[in-house]
Amino acid sequence: MPLQRRAINGRSINPVGLGCMSLSWAYGNRPSDADGVRLLQRAVDIGYDHFDTARLYGLGHNETQVGTALKGARRDKVFLASKMGIFASGEKRGIDCHPDTIRRELEVSLKLLQTDHIDLYYMHRRDFTVPIEDSVGAMAELVKEGKIGAIGLSEMSADTLRKAAAVHPIAAMQTEYSPWTRQAEIAVLDACRELGTTFVAFSPVARGVLANGVSDPAALPEKDIRRAMPRFSADNWPRNLALVEQFNAIAARESVTPAQLSLAWVLSRGDHLVTIPGTANAAHLEENIARWGWEIPSAVSAEVDALINQQTVAGPRYAAAMLPTIDTEDFA
């Protein structure tokens, strides 16, 4: 089956990109810098052409690694996305998307990434102290200057997207989406289609859960962010694990891996979607693209829908303390 390419901002890309975060932060144990660079370069060599990073990831470490890996001929082969707006070190903590901050942060990212432009630049979260129109206006100036190719938003609502798009076209909306996280279905997926905005699904294998990557959350490394997420708690995990076991059985029956099943399910939700699963494992890197031309049969998609959805998954996706930073619509 031929690979169906997708597009962001008019640029044709493969449907499965690479989320680079886990090379620096959040999940598992961070690989060595040399191993991280090798994995990124291997990704380009086997066909990945969309990398997603952010200043937050390792507080600049991830952008530095990506810049090192892409320096030279590989840079032109990759649609490069980064993000600004979340600060998590020193005295400055929280979200800041003031126009002067956006410009200042971009200059730092360009230096770390060793490039003169970023193809897609996101506001990582909504800054509720600044009108979205002002933040987008500042980013539009950066587009005019050629320092960024396009504007993206992350974890924002359909209403925010429409307000932003009234100022400048929004190339991409990045939000968590997988069979077990469905908030995007409330309004954002439809708004993206309406406005010509590509929906970029992060955590499309449910933070490793639908890639057979978590058996016992208590065994995760101490600093792994999943340990603090409600769905991985001692109360909720047994119910969720039971869903995973049934999901894995569907994958085995269809002769794909669980990760491949989840990725195909996400991509089947519309031709305006792309995915960015993350990994620090070379075998998973290859697994995630090995069947990227496989289309999930409609009956199998319906079976996944019935098994794993907002009603069957136990626990919210974020702890209560995180919710004030999330602009995406949520279920009652």
Features:
single chain, 332 residues, alpha/beta, TIM Barrel, 8-stranded parallel beta sheet, two-stranded antiparallel ribbon, 12 strands, 14% strand, oxidoreductase, NAD(P)_OxRdtase_dom_sf, Aldo-Keto_reductase, oxidoreductase activity
Question: Summed up, what is this model?
Answer:
The protein has helices at about 35-45, 60-70, 100-115, 130-145, 160-165, 190-195, 235-255, 260-265, 280-290, 300-305, and strands spanning about 5-10, 10-15, 20, 50, 80-85, 85-90, 90-95, 120-125, 150-155, 170-175, 200, 275. It is an alpha/beta fold.
Binned, the helix content reads: 25-40%
User: How far apart are the termini?
Assistant: 40 Å
Q: For the record, what CATH class of the domain at 6-208 and 269-294 applies?
A: Alpha Beta
| Major β-sheet profile | 8 strands, parallel
Shape: globular
Predict the CATH topology of the domain at 6-208 and 269-294.
TIM Barrel
Q: How do the strands line up in the largest sheet? A: 3-4-5-8-9-10-11-12
CATH superfamily assignment of the domain at 6-208 and 269-294?
NADP-dependent oxidoreductase domain
Indicate the mean pLDDT. Answer: 96
- Going by helix content, strand content and strand pairing, the class is alpha/beta
Tell me how many strands there are.
Answer: 12
Question: With helices defined by DSSP (H or I, 4 residues minimum), what is the helix count?
Answer: 10
Order of helices and strands: EEEHEHEEEHEHEHEHEHHEHH
GO cellular component, one term: cytoplasm
Pfam family, one: Aldo_ket_red
GO molecular function: oxidoreductase activity
Keywords: Oxidoreductase
